[in-house]
Write a structure and sequence with these properties.
This protein has 15 helices and eleven strands. It is of the alpha+beta class and about 450 residues long.
Length: about 450
């Protein structure tokens, strides 16, 4: 059994108690609500996350549950996040300021805001910009941990892709897509028959309440053990082929708003709700553009203005007859294309950021654009060609590969998260909660 971190923290906690005598008695002291391997979760973290969840629920228009009803769910989420962050720390995963700034810029852009507008929106919701940055950083670390520990282990063979495309489900997934929500009542690994029966009774009670009109999202928040419980069980859109065959067949005959009866799965029982469904057509022809560019990025030693000026000078040099490819090799800071003279080859415009896509769409073939800015820096680009590609078969294979990888990833992720939770030393100190240990 791992040494309890609390034993190593006692000298620090004693110091905090001695220091607290100098603080006004009306100021509440922070305290530990969970010990998680070599780290802790503090009451302040729990309170902040509960507030964020309540705000999210309120924005969706649902009834906001009291903080006490959310604490257990939110604490469990924080514990699992903490474990993944510790894995990231041990693995040497770091997020640079540049990467974090780009991520924040992308989030603002996706919400149709400038960075200043994004700051103002956070402040309006009572959220600190620094806290938001820190949360994005944590999510990026967790994403990279999952990429290393889960996604990189997933392999899909060509034969699996062919078999899938030839199967009834493979054909179905090309035309049917579902937006789902779920409620998961778990059973522990190697559960006894008594534990399985207890979970069955619990999920049966949840199902009856749903049949009697209980709100699915509220029930998920209160009762589900799924990773997305705090989002009301929202799973997003899933192709039929991403789901187990029995689920897909069941959903194909359901109407929007229907829920399934409790379904036995390897790690418990699940109830699904069909939120929306839509058909998916194939794009036989896909527009592609052959483009090259030079990217110049601002940095700690080069200001935004200096970056723009350098891009202007490179543009002028190209206009005066210097070779685009040679300048790209010497100056471009896009590592994926610089050595190829800035050549991005044939690309789908929809895969590019809006500013780049717009400039590319308006550019005349063979004419270098004036410098323009995206979230990545300053660019000059040249369109070398345009074409419409019949990519039906290739697109089908790529779509099938993505579906199969996503299906395997979803299954593997849930198994891995439960594994690291079961193997960790966790001691919960939240009042009224059961004490848990390794």
């Amino acid at each position: 059994m791992k040494t309890k971190l609390i034993d190593r923290l006692r000298p620090l906690m004693l110091g905090a108690v001695l220091l607290s005598s100098a603080v006004h008695a009306a100021v509440p002291l922070d305290h530990i609500v969970a010990i998680v391997d070599n780290d802790v979760v503090m009451q302040s973290q729990l309170d902040q996350r509960v507030r964020e969840v309540q705000q999210t629920i309120a924005k969706r228009g649902g009834g906001v549950p009291p903080a006490g009803a959310l604490e257990q769910q939110v604490l469990e989420r924080l514990i699992v996040e903490n474990l993944q962050l510790q894995i990231g720390e041990r693995s040497g995963i770091r997020i640079t300021d540049e990467e974090l700034n780009q991520a924040i810029g992308t989030i603002a852009q996706r919400n149709g805001m400038s960075l200043d507008q994004f700051r103002a929106a956070l402040a309006h919701d009572g959220l600190s910009f620094d806290d938001a940055r820190e949360q994005v950083k944590r999510e990026m670390i967790i994403s990279r941990v999952r990429q290393r520990r889960v996604a990189e282990r997933i392999q899909v063979s060509e034969q699996e892709v062919k078999n899938f495309l030839n199967s009834d489900l493979g054909k179905m997934q090309m035309s049917e897509e579902y937006r789902l929500a779920n409620i998961l009542i778990p059973t522990p690994e190697g559960a006894s028959s008594d534990a399985i029966q207890a979970a069955a009774r619990q999920v049966g009670d949840v199902y009856q309440q749903l049949r009697q009109g209980a709100d699915f999202g509220q029930m998920a928040i209160a009762r589900s053990a799924s990773e997305n419980a705090l989002e009301g069980g929202e799973m997003g859109w899933r192709k039929a082929g991403q789901l187990p065959p029995d689920f897909a067949k069941m959903l194909s005959s359901m109407s929007v708003g229907d829920i399934t009866q409790p379904i036995r799965i390897p790690n418990g029982f699940i109830i699904l709700k069909l939120e929306e469904k839509r058909g998916g057509g194939e794009n036989v022809l896909r527009d592609e553009v052959h483009v090259r560019h030079i990217l110049i990025k601002p940095s700690e030693i080069r200001s935004e203005a200096a970056t723009e000026q350098l891009a202007e000078r490179l543009y002028d040099r190209i206009q005066n007859g210097e070779d685009f490819a040679e300048l790209a090799k010497s100056f471009s800071e896009d590592p994926g294309s610089a050595l190829n003279g800035g050549d991005l080859n044939w690309v789908d415009p929809n895969s590019l950021v809006p500013e780049f896509r717009e400039q590319m769409a308006n550019a005349q073939q063979g004419v270098v654009t004036k410098p323009f800015k995206t979230q990545y820096g300053w660019h000059v680009l040249e369109v070398l060609g345009r074409r419409a590609t019949d990519s039906t078969e290739k697109a089908r294979e790529q779509q099938a590969l993505t579906v199969l990888r996503n299906r395997k990833y979803d299954e593997e992720l849930q198994t891995w998260l439960r594994q690291i939770r079961d193997e960790a030393y966790v001691e919960i100190k939240l009042p009224g909660a059961d004490q848990a240990a390794q």
